[in-house]
Amino acid sequence: MDAIDPLEQALHAARALVLADLVARDVAEAEVVSLVEEAVAHRRWWVEQWPEGIEYVAGLVAQDVQDGLLERYGRWPLCPVCGSGDPHALDVEPELGPDPHWVCGKAGVVVAPVGGLGAAG
User: Fold this and answer.
1) Burial per residue of 86-106, b for 16 or more beta-carbon CB atoms within 10 angstroms, e otherwise
2) pLDDT tens track for 40-76
3) Mean pLDDT of the 16-43 span
4) CB-neighbour burial class of residue 83 (10 A; exposed 0-12, middle 13-18, buried 19+)
5) Which of 14, 36, 53, 69 is least buried, going by the fewest C-beta atoms within 10 A?
6) Three-state DSSP class for 22?
7) Long-range Cβ pairs for the range 2-7 (8 Å, 24+)
8) Is the overall model pTM greater than 0.85, yes or no?
């Protein structure tokens, strides 16, 4: 049996986490899933150039999809914490690091890990 390639494992995990968040927020339409695939393809190249960055892939794919959605559809994911004021998107923190989380920058609150928006209400 062949060993699982760590790069492929990280990319598949990142894809699954981001898709789970998209499903949790009811935005996993075909065009949006295509954004995920584009982000994964881009990050495959990125990690091939910088293998030490493999543990950052999930957060980077989440940020790439968030950027793509902002350009095409609007802010995502909207903050479920702040009930007043202008609707705003959550941020991925750390921007470049392992164990990425969705965070409300206004309230300074961790909302959920990337992949865990379904449990965050």
Assistant:
1) eeebbbbbeeeeeebbbbbee
2) 999 999 999 999 999 999 999 999 999 999 988 899 9
3) 95
4) exposed
5) 53
6) helix
7) 6/54, 7/44, 7/47, 7/48, 7/51, 7/54
8) yes
